[in-house]
Every structure is written in C-alpha cells, then in structure tokens.
User: Fold Putative FAD-linked oxidoreductase from Actibacterium lipolyticum.
Amino acid sequence: MLNSVTPEFEASLRETLPQAAFRPLTASYLEEPRGRYTGQGGLLVAPANTEEVATVVRACAAAKVGVVPYGGGTGLVGGQIMETGPMPVILSLERMKDIRAVYPDENVLVADAGAILADVQQAAEQHGRLFPLSLASEGSARIGGNLATNAGGVNVLRYGNARDLCLGLEAVLPDGSILNGLTRLRKDNTGYDLRNLLIGSEGSLGIITAAALKLFPRPAAEGAALMVVEDPAAALSLLAMASRRIGGGVSAFELIGRMGLEFLAETMPEVRQPFADKPNWMVLIDLGLGAGQDPATALEELFVEAFQAGIVSDGVIAQSEAQRADFWAIRESIPAANRKIGAVSSHDISVPLGAISDFVAKGNAALADIADFRVNAFGHLGDGNLHYNVFPQRGKSRQDYEHLRPQVKRCVHDLVHEFGGSVSAEHGVGRLKVEDMERYADPAKLAAIRAIKAALDPDGIMNPGVIVRGA
Amino acid sequence: MLNSVTPEFEASLRETLPQAAFRPLTASYLEEPRGRYTGQGGLLVAPANTEEVATVVRACAAAKVGVVPYGGGTGLVGGQIMETGPMPVILSLERMKDIRAVYPDENVLVADAGAILADVQQAAEQHGRLFPLSLASEGSARIGGNLATNAGGVNVLRYGNARDLCLGLEAVLPDGSILNGLTRLRKDNTGYDLRNLLIGSEGSLGIITAAALKLFPRPAAEGAALMVVEDPAAALSLLAMASRRIGGGVSAFELIGRMGLEFLAETMPEVRQPFADKPNWMVLIDLGLGAGQDPATALEELFVEAFQAGIVSDGVIAQSEAQRADFWAIRESIPAANRKIGAVSSHDISVPLGAISDFVAKGNAALADIADFRVNAFGHLGDGNLHYNVFPQRGKSRQDYEHLRPQVKRCVHDLVHEFGGSVSAEHGVGRLKVEDMERYADPAKLAAIRAIKAALDPDGIMNPGVIVRGA
Assistant:
C-alpha cells in the first residue's frame, strides 16, 4: 500500500531540494482537456534537472509515496490526473525545458523532457531540419509526455509515431536510479529494448527526463490536395496508388467524412467548404518532395490515374501554400467543431486497414440501434487510426444521451475487438481505459505487463493506477 | 539451477508430441558460421505449430530444462549454441515455415517464425510488394531469428531494422503461455511494448512463433552509383546532400575503404574494380524512386553538386541494372574476401555519425601500436554502423596474431565506449558479448534487464547464458 504525502515528507524533501523546486499547486495541474478527471491534490515538485528528479523519486520510493509525472497536461486518458488514493507527489517537468544540443549533420536533437513540442520543432527548423511529430496540442504538450504516451499525430504515415522518432532516453527509474540511455546511435543491439519499454508506459515504469530525437531533411517542396472518394475502401486504394507513384513522399493521408463537414458548417461557418456538395468521404493528401519535383504535378497525375480507375470522382489541388493551409484548416478544425457539438463518446481506435469500411458500416448500424446518434469518423487513414466519435442528434445535447455513454463505448469497443483492432490507437490507456485493457487484452500480455510492472516498480509508486491497477 | 534433458523427460515429451517433431541432432545444429562455438548436444525438437512449441516450453518449464531456440543458425554471436551447462532442448523452428497470409492492400504479410527470409521477400514480390530486410545470409536465415536478434542489413537507412518492419508478434513465453500479439495494426497504444521487448531479446524472454510484417511498394525505378570521397566525414556530407535532394529515395549508403578493395584484388580478382586507382574511401549509393523519376539523372545531379562542393572527386553511375548489380557485387564480396584473409578480430560497432572519421583514425592508430595489422572498415554509414575488422599483415595468418585477439577486441571496444558507441550494432549480444555488456552497459540498464529477465523467466530456462548470465 502507498502512503500519502505528509508534512514530514514535504519538510524532508524541502531540505534536500532548492526552494525553486516547490511551486503552488494551481488548479491547472488537477484538470484535463476533456473535463472527465479532477485531481485530488498532492505536493507539486518541479525539479530543475535529472539529479533532482532522482532525488524526488528516491524519497518517494523510501516513503512509498506515489509519483504522478506531469508534462504538458494535454493527455486525453487521465494519465496525468490521480483522482483517488493516497496523496501523491505531482512531479512536473516544466522547469526542464532546454534543447540540450542539436547535431544537424547527424540529424539528431537532444532535449529535456519538459521541452514544449513546438519548441523542439522550431529548434530543428532553425538548423534547417524537420522534427515531424505534429499534433493539435503541440503548443503546450511536452516531449517527455509525447514519448511517455507514444504520441501519434498527422505525420505518422511517413515518419512514424513518437516511438519511431526517438533514438535514446534518459530516465529516472522507480528506485531512483538514472538510466543513461541518451544515445545518438542509429543502431544498438545490446540487450533488451528499455527505450521502447519506457515509451508508451505512460509514466508507470519511470520518468523520462531527456531524449535524443531523430531529425529529417525538410522537404524541398510541399503540396496538398483534397480528393473525393466513395468510401474508406476507395481511400485505401488511392493511398496504395499514391504510395506506388510517389513513394515515401506522402506525408499525410487524412480521411474526412461528411459529418465532419456538416459539423463545420454548423459550428464554424467561417471555414470554407471545399466542395459545393458535401461529399460522403474525402481525403486530404499532403506531399513533401525532394529537389526538382513538383508536388502539384505529382498530385495532378495521381488524380488523373485515380479518376480513370474510378477511385476518385472529384478533387482540388492546392495552387499555393495559402490554399494548402486552407485544406489543413478544414482537417484541423474538425476537433474544435466536435467540441462545440459535444460528443456523447469519443473513440480513438484502430483496425486493420482493409477492415475500415466494414467497421464504419457495422459501427454506424449498431449505434443506430441504440439511439439517433450522429457519428463523425475521421482520422489518419494510412495508420488505420480512426477517431470514431458519437454525437447527439441536431437539437439535442450530450446530456440527453449521458446515460447511454457506457453502452455506446462498449458497443464500439466490442466491435473494434471483434475486428482485431485497438481501443487506444494513439492516446494511450491512462486511467480511462484500464478496464478496457482487462476486458480486451490478451491474457498473456496482461500477465507479462503486470510482471514487468512488479519487477521494476515493486511498490507501485510510479503513476499509480495507470495501465494496470495498483497492487 | 537448470536440469539436463533426461531419458525420462524425452520419453514424456514423446508421449505428448507427434513423432515428426523429433529429428536427429546433426552436427549443423552445433556449429555456427565463424566456428567459434561448438554445441555440446541436447534434445532436438522441431514443433509443427505454435501449440506444439507451447507444449515443449511448458514441459521444459516444469522440468527446469533449458530451451535453445534455433532458427537458421546464421547468428554471429553464439546465441544459437549452448556450449556448457545442463543439456538443453534445442527447439528448431524449421517446420514452421509457412507464409500464413499476405494482405497486399494493407502492406502486411504474416509469416511463421521459421520462414526463410528470402521466401518472405519472394512472397512479397509475388504480390507486387517489397519486404526490405536484406542481408548476406537471407537464403538460410529465418524471420523469427531475424526478429529475435533485431537484424539490420543494407536497407536500414531507408526502411529501418527488423524491429521497424514488424507490426505484431505471436510468441511462446517462458511459462509456456502463448502471447497472441499478431496484430496487423499500424497503431496500438494499449500497454507496454512487449513486441519490441521480445525483438532483440535473442530468445531469452520467449520464442517468437509468427510475425506480422510491414510491406512496402516496390520502387518504380532503381539506380546506383559509386562515388569517391576523401574520408568518412565527406561521405556523411554527401549523405546529407543526397537526403536533402532525394528525400526518402536513398535506399542504401554503404561505405567502402581501400583495404576492402585491396582484399578483393588479393582474394577475388574476378570482381571488377570500379576505379583504376583504388580510392581511400568510396560510397555505394542506391536509390529507389517513384513513378516518373529517373535515378541516373538524380545521381548525376547529386554528383555535380557534390563535385562542385568539393565533397566527391570521382564517380561512376550505373547505366543499367547489370552495372548496378556489379556495384553491389563489390560491396557484397567484401565479407567473403574478409573470410579468405581471415580476421584476427571482427567488430560490429556503431558510433554517432559525426564521430565516424575520428573513430577510424584513432582506432587505426591504437591498433598500429599493438601490431602491424591491416584494418578493413566498411559498412552502413547512414546508420553509423561500421564493420571494423582487424586482419593479419600480408604473408602472415590469423594464427600469428591469435594471442593478441583479446587485446585487440578490448582496444576497439574501449574506444567505441569512449565515443558513446555500441559494441554490438546489429549482431546482438548472444553469448559472445555478455562480458562486454557487464563492462560497458549502463548499470541501471543492466539492473533493469536482469529484473525483467527474472520476472518473465524466473527459472532462467529461455536460451540460458544469452545477454545476461544465468541465475
């Protein structure tokens, strides 16, 4: 059993750390973006460096006090909020936000875990490089949290998720020891892959304190198009055609359904609709090409071949960077429109690529049997990752359906499981989906996860209640 | 402590498995390519399916008998050979060699762990797709072994190593339970990354029985060039220029030193030398481009820019597929030439990209202080992975230097460690480098590896002595 932070514990910690490490616990540390979790409080500590993180964790390990790592606070599954149990230490990385070094010739950047994602992107850009992790909350999310949750975003198709963008990690393990794994090596086959074990462990096996990240050349020319397809299966055929024609140059391939466009028209009429008649499905294709290649030409040629093959029925190709930004504004406004409508239940799911069309059809039909929902399915088609979100009918509010939420979630997740999919494609498990893990995860996987947690964190101090229930 | 296989154990296993699972233990199971390890024997079992693998492992777990997983037997670090200790079961995957399914639209192939790498490549090709893992032993290596050792090869720069090419795994864990992780999902953030923990664990945490692998579109056009550079630093500048100009189209970027060309002239005069005067350093650049792009033109333009910048001094661009094959024959003949010369000590190392030139200079100087060696440094420059191999002077043999081998190895590995590099970039630890792990690995990493091993394999039955010493 864990213990609560006590005045004695705090006093003792104050003797070993500089005064600056202690900050007031404002409300922002106890809230999260979707308003589903509220923290109970705790002792906020903001160490200035890795040694201080280790000092805090050692103190917590000795006193069996829980540690909740806190990055940018943008997580969507309650991983940063501990609502119940003994009062924890909330360990914020906010003071460890330096870009430690950039090695442009090696395409490597080393950052403190508390560096804001947008700052990492900017530091790469200043050296003529690209750090491709990109997601809605990049202005406040911190790279340590991005790695702890294996964040995804819009460029996964081309560059991979956070896991794929990390070469090495420095971390403080649950016993307070420092893992010095901040390698810039592209290849290192010496022993178990602790880096990937920590990435995606959501703070439950240790606290990431710094990371060596992969950079990429910036594309010489970028372009985008919107193309209308009949259904997600046609979108997949278009993606295969684009990959064959353009190779690795396809940076993003985002699926947008008619409901998303209707939500935009309803809540954000200032966003310009790309087609006079809202199509049932369209895709946003984004290209980044090398020297001497013209994205608009490549997209035109793709459109012609796809049109002749009956895969696309309409399309528009960005003629300027401004028009490309307009296309992206459509995609990026959909989450905001969703929030204005107010979801009954949101699902960050993935299914095998070939099953997406079938999944959407079956999911919509099953939900219609429950109530008169509106479903907005959109997302990263090339990754098989759909944000499959369920909304009230026009004129009703989410409160009208609140009692149905568990049933909706169960219906969608059961179907995902039936299709061999994942109930958390990119947001993680956090505290929100621990029950789902218990219901859907392979028993051998669950047993191995519990054994690893017990081996590395025998007292269960690291982010208690995340991924697996406390001992 | 483990127990030896006994006649009673074998008799009991024969009652639970079909007769076909038992094959004679021929010498080939007790040898390895470099002739440094000789197996002591054991009971060879070749299960027909995953259930039978689980049956064997459960029996071994109950009797505390060691299990040595055996794939293609091509490993270079003794991971497949147990020389000492209680007689183990040698569990060969040779009868589990089916391609289970191909999903061309999803770019996914599912194979049994015993499938030969070349057969996986061919199955992908039959569906118009590419499985890019490619290495010298691909005609006999099995995909399960490739994954267990996180194999590298020549296409890592573009497509990643075995780890990056795997979406999901099925495996039998040390307690005989079956991990059903054979997902085709591109994104799945539900719990710890057991896939990547098993990949690279070299059979010490379980036996991979099947894998879902990533496929890629086949490039529309391929091309290659050899370009002469002053040193590895210039090669790195050339790679940066190529990446900027050609983006993701650079499939391979191999560094070849003068000594490799001299070894070829000495032992394989039939291999045509590309330049009249052997250059100190050259690189083999291989491109795979999309529709409408011409690799020869791209390489010409790259050469012109690099020549004008003073980065390259000479070059030749393949004008046909046959000439491209000739270029590759040079690169691929170097390991054979090395074997004919006979290495005193071979090192599969990596250092940060920016340190390669410095490392080679310091390494050569340090070795010259020991004896009159010839050093052949070559490898996958874009990955920072050098095969840094030390040979006898002309007219002498490896036996003349045998007594210096430990000193040579220690000298090279100490230097690698000093540069923040890895003493096993792609071959793994096996039994060969357990001592190196103990000497060079971060203490927190070693402790975590031992804790995970103890948690998942408390009796230490899985590939005893690999990566970490037995309990």
